[in-house]
Amino acid sequence: MSTVHTAAYPDPEHDGRILYAGDCDTSIIKGVVALLVELFSGKTPQEIEELDVDALFAWLHLEDHLSPNRHVGVYAIVDKMKSQARALTD
Q: So what's the pLDDT on residue 23?
């Protein structure tokens, strides 16, 4: 099982926007986390909530390259990152 760390924090240069950092101990998921960090960073909480990660994953054919367990894990990372954005607005 992979250990994934993500953190969301307010963008100090752009009011209302959120930046992310992330890492993982396995190379495959580390790459996915890097893509998600790039996709989510610089957006407002509303934009993050509305992100269509399914479109990105389909375009990358990600489901063809991940085991079912990793596929579920990737969506758990997405949910966690969206939750982190919501927590910053509370």
A: 97
Contact 21, 37 (CB under 8 A): yes
Which amino acid appears at position 80 of this protein? K
DSSP state of 27: H
Report residue 62 as tokens. 């990600």
Q: In the prediction, which pLDDT does 89 show?
A: 87
User: pLDDT tens digit string along 47-68?
Assistant: 999 999 999 999 999 889 888 8
Question: Which is it for the CA torsion 48, 53, 56, 60, positive or negative?
Answer: positive
Q: Checking DSSP bridges between strand 18-24 and strand 4-10, what pairing results, if any?
A: antiparallel
Paired tokens of 48: 């993050």
CATH 3.90.1010.10 fits 4-84, yes or no: yes
- pTM of the entire structure? 0.92
Cα distances from 6 to residues 3, 78, 87, in angstroms, run 10, 10, 13
Q: Identify the H or E element spanning 20.
A: strand 18-24
